[in-house]
Amino acid sequence: MGVSLKDVAQRAGVSVKTVSNVVNDYPHVTPAMRARVQQAIDELGYRPNLTARHLRKGRTGIIALAVPELGNPYFAELASAVIDAAARHHYTVLLDHTAGMREKEMLVCQGFQTHVIDGLILSPIELENQDLHGRTDTSPLVLLGEREYDAPYDHIAIDNVAAARSAVRHLIAIGRQRIAFLGARAESARQPAHLRLRGWREELSAAGLPHDDSLVAPTDGYGRADGAQAMATLLDRGVRPDAVFAYNDLQAIGAMRVLGERGLRVPQDVAVVGFDDIEESRFGAITLTTVAPDKQAIARQAVNCVISRLTDSAEAEPRRLRPGHDLVVRESTLGRHQ
Amino acid sequence: MGVSLKDVAQRAGVSVKTVSNVVNDYPHVTPAMRARVQQAIDELGYRPNLTARHLRKGRTGIIALAVPELGNPYFAELASAVIDAAARHHYTVLLDHTAGMREKEMLVCQGFQTHVIDGLILSPIELENQDLHGRTDTSPLVLLGEREYDAPYDHIAIDNVAAARSAVRHLIAIGRQRIAFLGARAESARQPAHLRLRGWREELSAAGLPHDDSLVAPTDGYGRADGAQAMATLLDRGVRPDAVFAYNDLQAIGAMRVLGERGLRVPQDVAVVGFDDIEESRFGAITLTTVAPDKQAIARQAVNCVISRLTDSAEAEPRRLRPGHDLVVRESTLGRHQ
């Protein structure tokens, strides 16, 4: 027979009610009491019946997370962090990827598995304001990422303009003047790169450098092959940057591959900065300088937003949260430490 | 108002029953008829009510997938493939990661979110035979990966011994004789690398080469840092292989980073082969030769197994399926094409 609340209460020398308060994450339990009960829980191997607990509250204990692609390590790392953050609140995560397609994003947003989901965290690429305004599903929705919306939903994103400016500022500080931007889409209302592109422009202007649009290389997608192709196209056009700021690490890695193939040295001939700080960036032949968004904070805030909408703040004003970011400087701009 | 079955039937010029047969994936519909109905569905933007359809059959339309870690691109790529394969059968995927911990694997296996899950696909690391035999949950369970079990569940894995042998054979063919194996665990009953290690030994024997156990480098985990550390330890011990066969691509990539730091050239001084064919392997400064498991086939077979257990073959004998694999030869063994 399993361990009961009563067993835990006896072991901890407290009332069953106190154990219940701890297990259910209710407030008004002192940290000392919480630790004492937790110790008894751990010693006895007590497992609360989470399903029953969620069902009592009319919930399933499942949060959906929809990202553009799991094949992109940034989203895989973010998904890992969300799964862990959700687990700390006894939630599990239903994960889906949208391939960045508007139709799939709308489908997810309009009511993806509504019978089993308490809330949704969505990282959209193509979704429009009107799609969000047309949403009829009433479960909590939290938006992640660079797109800006005028819609009544919580939105979590780092300050992409400031982050891009810090990357460009670093390149200028090491003496670079012809800094290419890799990974813009063709200009449109749906320019996912617009904030990072704005940061690139603003920082060049602040330094008194021209922003030469021939240095902006559009890509069709967000992968290594897209970065490689954009870099090759730039070089084939005779454009010769002394630095590259890429929309993300994958594109930067693809670009570095092409620079190597063309006999250009990183960073001596071309310094490279990426964005995302995926683990891969730390282990290449040339480690990558990159903007590191605080993925743990993004995940934690996203889960907290969903849960607080489910509990005490369903009607609160939509929040705009800004997790932090760092510039992590590595060999692709500073060279290898000899 | 939405598009109905009747609208589709009128557009396609067929009966409502025929449209229903197509939408529900029933057999006995000719490909031509299926195409005709599908065209009408696409033109009208008809969306079948999948939830209702699953619920009519007493199902939720959700398959759980539990992998050791999403941060490992192999599992992220596999998860993508499973999500896509499931979507083709109108299933969505509840994804969880177990961190390769036995307790988490047991929890998942014993009845993870049973109220919302039709079946489970699990890639275990530490799970034991006895854990599987003790399983009381009756929903279909499909096992993935290298561990071998004597348990009544479908199991899908490539032929790891043959795959490892092909990697070692290639290294011998290019003249290497001191081939290190990176990524074994300390010897134990739970040696996840045992089949690849066996392939390494068998192929060396077949070539009349000794298998020098000082060339086997154990690691604590499966990541880039583990491969880097194992490579550094080997070199620090004065062991000087002319080739490395790594348990996976991540470890191979970590090892290549250390070889570069020590001034050893890949492949001239040390040739390197990995395992998994993650996309990262195609874009490093030195592209990686690797064993490529057919991830699409693994995903498709896993989803098919779950679904067929739910429908017509609940009582069939457990299956052992062997998806294919290839050796993909790149610069880390053949050098760069000049």
TrEMBL record, chains A, B:
It holds the Pfam family LacI. The keyword Transcription applies. It comes from the Bacteria. InterPro entries: HTH_LacI (IPR000843), LacI/GalR-like_sensor (IPR046335), Lambda_DNA-bd_dom_sf (IPR010982), Peripla_BP_I (IPR028082). The keyword Transcription applies. GO terms for molecular function: DNA-binding transcription factor activity; transcription cis-regulatory region binding. Keywords: DNA-binding, Transcription, Transcription regulation. Residues 3-57 form the HTH lacI-type domain. This is LacI family transcriptional regulator. It comes from Streptomyces longwoodensis.
